[in-house]
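Progress report, Aim 2. The chain analyzed during this reporting quarter is listed below.
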Amino acid sequence: MNKDEPKAVTEILQELSTTSHVQVRSSTELAAQITKAAGEEDEKRVEDGRGPLRRRTDYRAVRTAPRSLTLTPWQVIHAIGLGAAAARQGAGRGLAEHWGSLRYNQALESNRGGYLQLSSEGRDLLRFYKATQSGEIGTGFASLLAENIIRSRYPDHSVSVIPADVALKAGWTLRGSGIGARPEPRQRRPHFFVEAWQPGQPSKVLLLSSKGTHSSAHQVQKQLATAGAHVESVHIGPYGTVPYLLIGTEIPTKEGLAVHALEAPGTTVLRQPGETSGADLDLFLEQENRTADIVRPTDHGETTVPGFQVLPDSFAWFSVVLARTEAATLTAFTGGGKPTAQYLTKEQGQRHFQHDAHANTAGLRDAEHRIHGVDFVGTDHIYRLNGTRVEAFSGLQKDLYMYLHHGRVNDYRREVHALRGQWPDRSTSEQWNAVSIRADGTVMAIRLRDE
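Predicted structure tokens for the chain:
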């Protein structure tokens, strides 16, 4: 095939289901390099009058970090789409944003050594949206690595990765008021909350800041230095005690991808004093208008600084926020509409899902497919890939979907937790060229469509 000719769609779909490896790098040397990068950035900020950034600097190498991730490009696309489904409502109306993950169908491929890298198509696309591509691909790898790390530490828990901005909007106004510039700590926020949970029990939670770059490892270090300011803006419990992960994805043009990671270890449990059970996750959420301040201890007592803090007396509320934001993400992934709107407050974007009106979709939640013996409900997307019609499907296991459709978050979590370790892990099926099924019960699949 001429290098200027588009790949055959059958070849693209085969690559999407091909298992590859991605290096994971975490070390004390990396932590030292990021500390140095932070110092250099702050020196420049002092010179131009902005002053140093507030950052968390208690990071270190990730204990029990895997040496590599083994996955398919389709799993990465699934993670990107799930993260976008409820995170950016805007004009895209949720579901259309989710389908934007399909732009990466031709962006990743396995090299001869079995490691994932950018394809020639992925390199060509850098001209058009380099920053967008690196950021979105970075969130996909960051969420997958975070799940891997937290599951290895809490094997008897389920793990959810929840868009932080959507969750925070339930309690705080993140938009500017139009009067002056907003303080930097309110502009820089972590990308996700990672929740390790068991039904009926208080959850464990940590912050995740994600970065991605097409540049060198040195640029990753600079990005992760700034990521320390993103996690500094949110505190759960007393100041500086919530653990976090900083994850940056290096996407070179000619070599294999690498994921760089650091952490501040620890455990933050959303348990109020005297409470032993978890919150009722079926409770309806009212929009709150909390003060965007953090209580920080000083040598002479304490002071308040800009940011977002959840104190112990609000842990039950925040548990509900996390669970219902995840429910909104899952239902948005299957088709959005009123099943999603019920889980969101006004500031979280409820109005964008009140009506079933999404770009490029003729029917929502009207597709049912049986994949690997499991029944799924969701939405189809028919489009052309290099001139050939293909069908993509995103959905949720049918019983789990019905729980969320009727507002039964407690039942969803109880059932999906019981199904841990039982989901099929094959990357293809008889009827689908590429398949990804996640532990949350969601599926994403793609296949050729008859003309």
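Residues 78 and 114 are 20 Å apart (CA to CA). The longest helix spans residues 126-153. These observations will guide the mutagenesis work planned for the next reporting period.
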